[in-house]
């Protein structure tokens, strides 16, 4: 099981080797009906479930990709993970990055 955390260390574990920075990226389109719904919600208030669903899907995808790249380096954890989002021209760009490490129980 791969542990992914935003913290620089993991309670109860010792980092034995730093293997490098890993990242996962995804650029996903949002359809015009969701855009229209989001625009109406911006005017009348409320949350945009369409965008929230897309962001959740993108987040899961980039974290999974980051974990896969860490495993390819021989890591069993990723520390210092962070997520970033950017929107442009009807697209949502999502990035997850962190440091791939090997850990063992302390």
Structure description:
With 106 residues, the chain is of the alpha+beta class. The chain has one domain: Translation Initiation Factor IF3. Helices cover 35% and strands 43% of the residues. It contains 2 helices and 4 strands; from the N terminus they run E-E-H-H-E-E. The chain has helices at residues 32-44, 49-72, and strands at 3-4, 13-29, 77-88, 91-105. A 4-stranded mixed beta sheet has the order 1-3-4-2. The two termini are 17 Å apart. 16% of the residues are buried. This is UPF0145 protein QUW28_06135. It holds the Pfam family YbjQ_1. Belongs to the UPF0145 family.
Q: Low-confidence runs (pLDDT<50, min 5 residues)?
A: none
Helix content: 25-40%
Tell me which CATH architecture applies here: 2-Layer Sandwich
- Please indicate the count of domains: 1
Shape: elongated
CATH superfamily: Hypothetical protein apc22750. Chain B
**The CATH topology:** Translation Initiation Factor IF3
Query: What is the highest CATH level, the class?
Result: Alpha Beta
Sheet of most strands: 4 strands, mixed
Q: What is the residue-mean pLDDT, rounded to a whole number?
A: 85
Instruction: Give the strand line-up of the largest sheet.
Output: 1-3-4-2
Helices and strands in order:
Layout (H helix, E strand, L loop, with lengths): L2 E2 L8 E17 L2 H13 L4 H24 L4 E12 L2 E15 L1
Parallel strand pairs: 1-3
Antiparallel strand pairs: 2-4, 3-4
